[in-house]
Amino acid sequence: MKKLLLCLVVFVPFLATAQEETIEYKERFEQLGTMLPSPNVYRTASGAPGEKYWQQKADYQIKVKLNEAQNQITGSETITYYNQSPHPLNYLWLQLDQNLRKDGSDMETTSTYSFFNDTIPAKFIEQYVDNGGDAYNFDGGFKIDYVKDASGNPMNYLINKTMMKIRLKETLNPGDEISFSLAWSYNINDRMKGGGRSGFEYFEEDGNSLYTIAQFYPRMAVYNDVEGWQNKQFLGAGEFALTFGDFDVEISVPDDFIVGATGMVQNAKEVLTKDQYNRYEKALKSTEQTFIVTEEEAIENEKEKSTKYETWKFSAENVRDFGFAASRKFIWDGMMVELESSKPFAQSFYPKEGNPLWEEESTKAVKNTLVLYSERTFDYPYPQATSVHAASIGMEYPMICFNFGRPNPDGTYSTRTQLGMTYVIVHEVGHNFFPMIVNSDERQWAWMDEGLNSFLESNVMWEYYPDLPYTDNSPQAITGYMKSSKDKQRPIMTNPEQVLRLGPNAYTKPAAALNLLRNTILGPELFDESFKAYAQRWKFKHPTPADFFRTMEDASAVDLDWFWRGWFYTTDHVDVAVDEVKYFRIATKAEDMEKKTKAPKGDLGGKKEGEEEKKTDFSDGPEYLTVQETPSFWYGEYRSKMDDKAIEEYYKDKHFYEVTFKNEGGLVSPLLMKFNYTDGTSETKMIPAEIWRKNEGKTRKVFILDKEVESLVFDPENELADTETSNNVFPKAEPETKVDKFKEGK
């Protein structure tokens, strides 16, 4: 029989803290420390902007013409740049993103690809163009006509691939501003042939095009306290770092075109018919979907191509960029959304090829997104949010986004098509919050907008679309990627141009991490308060990863350095094994001690003498513990005594389960355990991840329970991104069927 002679008051702690002699130590619980930049007067240790935080401002006056016959953009702009930094500037940097399509661009020369037999021309072009080539002889890139100062004098400038440096004759001192003008043009790419975030789609049946236009003007780069000028070259994957400012934009298009853009149209009465204008005015004030341009009007509009031009005027305040869409094919509907402190206008532009799906779902998805995101961050501050339908694209700009999801030619569509169209609209509209308002640096940290936005996207989908088979961005959704070969992964904290698989790395993994943090580690209330604090602190500002990490800890009073370190700085994965379970009870009578006998000595099967074989079930029943009176030396200087009998009486009917856990995946995790009792009931207990802090490879925990356990399961509802469920159960058997609570909308 097994007999443990222990002091009653210490036997439970002894079991609970027992550890392996060999400790695996990889600093998973060390503070991030020097991995984060030192706090200063610009960014505080709490994660908030400092008392001397500053940022630059750039205002734009733009006039642009869309030449339909030539598929060309020509334009001019005046930029007023405000130096609100404490530093004198001798030059300015602007982004020339269209130069990505210029022959010899870095995207072309640094791309890698392979040839395959039995390819098709379209696939060859797609592969070649996606890797920076020019497979259809496209003349891309900006043609700069001039750069002039406010007096009309030429300015000295240098173009370095996708960046333009303007050399200033006089230093731009702190508090000063400068105005200068540029004129430029470029050829619009056919997205079917060349892909891209912006371009046109040609419809052969009616001979019309749908234009989604962005990165169409030279844009000021960000200059900030973190890295000075953000002038990293644009290689295609890393998106944009941009400066806030006010925009007045005039867009000249054929006079039968409908235009949607960043900001609000200023001359709607001039560019719309009387009936369309009246419907527009009604829609702005109504919470019911209203058609401003009907499908019948759009079809009629497609029949003739006007050669006359008219100008749409838009104005937008405090935005970081500007985009627009234009076509004579557009149907246009919208509705007002009532938030607590604002009433933005949700609207959609789409060709007949998008119906009936788009008229049924698009504007509704815009509304749902604005409502939930506003609840979790701040009320949407802009006057409108627009969803535009275009084939095979999902891309965002302030107040406007371009989204895929097209029914079959006969108007039918599958659930998969509806799902894809819905979540891409939610995702791209959600980008208005991250990074259009909480203005992180996409060129450096793709996860700060894509990951945070994908996290909220999943919450919209689970809350508003429970009947659609949405499975993205839960912890369970990332397990396949996290357990894949480590040479195919990069940490989340990797520049997007160096990431091997941008989707799981910048979208799904950080979103899954935040869902885990919200629903399991912090709980919704504490997480939501902390996340909202971050959003409100950095609304219309330029946050960094450190600002996010520090704010989440500052607002929650929870040390999360282990979480950021493991999830964001490593490629470890969660694989916790229930390695061994021992069952104990207190011996209360002599016959208890006779129920257990020692295993016979003899053939040990390769084991050392005295080494016990791990049990695989509870068939042998409990092992019994004997207790003795607390010896006098235990009390030391204390004058009072323990009531040994009362304590023994309290514990005599308890069930003690010593569970040994092994960290097979390397990523430390909370221990979420479900105990299924012999009476048919069950109970779940949560142990914080800090249980691994003294041994990151193996740990033990004693659970003191009122009932006898029939089986126990680690991570019973797939909350922890555990990649191997077969080692999660005891007795050792096939794991029970689990429910993914995130999919069900927890």
Q: Can you characterise this structure?
A:
This is M1 family metallopeptidase. Keywords: Signal. InterPro entries: Peptidase_M1_aminopeptidases, Peptidase_M1_dom, Peptidase_M4/M1_CTD_sf. It comes from Marivirga atlantica. The protein has 746 residues and is α+β, with helices and mostly antiparallel strands. It has a domain at 5-28 and 575-730. Helices cover 24% and strands 27% of the residues. The strands form 7 sheets. A 7-stranded mixed sheet has the order 5-8-3-2-14-18-16, with no helix packed on it. Strands 17-20-21-22-24-23 form a 6-stranded mixed sheet, sandwiched between helices. It is elongated, with a radius of gyration of 31 Å. The protein starts with a strand and ends in a 16-residue tail after the last strand.
Oligomer: single chain
Spatial separation of the terminal alpha carbons:
48 Å
Name the overall outline: elongated
Structural class of the helix and strand makeup? alpha+beta
Q: Count every helix, treating DSSP H or I runs of 4 or more residues as helices.
A: 17
Beta-strand proportion: 25-35%
User: Quick one: biggest sheet?
Assistant: 7 strands, mixed
DSSP E strands, number: 32
Question: What spatial order of strands do you see in the largest sheet?
Answer: 5-8-3-2-14-18-16
Please state the CA-atom Rg, rounded to the nearest Å: 31 Å
